[in-house]
Every structure is written in structure tokens, then in C-alpha cells.
Known about the structure:
This protein has 103 residues and is of the alpha+beta class. The protein has helices spanning 2-16, 62-75; strands at residues 21-23, 27-31, 34-40, 44-46, 50-55, 79-84, 92-97.
Amino acid sequence: MAEEVYQQCLEIELNLRGISFVTKRELTLIYKGREIDKRYVPDLFAFGSIVVELKSVKELSPEHEAQLFNYMRIAKQPVGYLLNFGRRDELEWKRFVLSDLRG
């Protein structure tokens, strides 16, 4: 629930600042040339190429990072941000860059 509130607030803020973004764009998964039913849905893409995943947890975990890495690889986007609004009185954020993406 808290993540949804932060998501809406971030969308308002990005709009106010004129930053282009797309929310909840489904990523199609392909296995051996065949599309599978499961879809990944990152929270948003900023500037058309930066994958952003929002959390509202006490502490970020390696699982949160792995989730973002999966989104980045499937979307073939080398830059991602993991934002955590769950820490008391501060925003926690991490920026990741994948250098091993292949087209």
C-alpha cells in the first residue's frame, strides 16, 4: 500500500518537473524464441530508458537488487534506480549500471 502512495507522489513530482516517464509498462518474457505468459512490471521507466523500482521497506535486500537487475536485463536497459521510501526521515536510493547487456 505505501509503495502505491509513493508511486503516485513520484509521478506527480516527475510531471511537475517535466520529466518523461511511463508507469507499470509490462515486459514480455521470451524463452527459446517463445513468449511466455508471465510478465514483469517495473514501477516506472524515466526518460524512456532508466528502470526505476520503488520500495517501502525498513532495509533494502539483495532480493530487491536482483529484482531490479532482472527488469533491467529483460528491458535491455543498462541503468536502474532502486528507491526505498521506508527508512525513517530519509530516502534511500541506489543506482546500478549493467555493462554486460547484449542486444
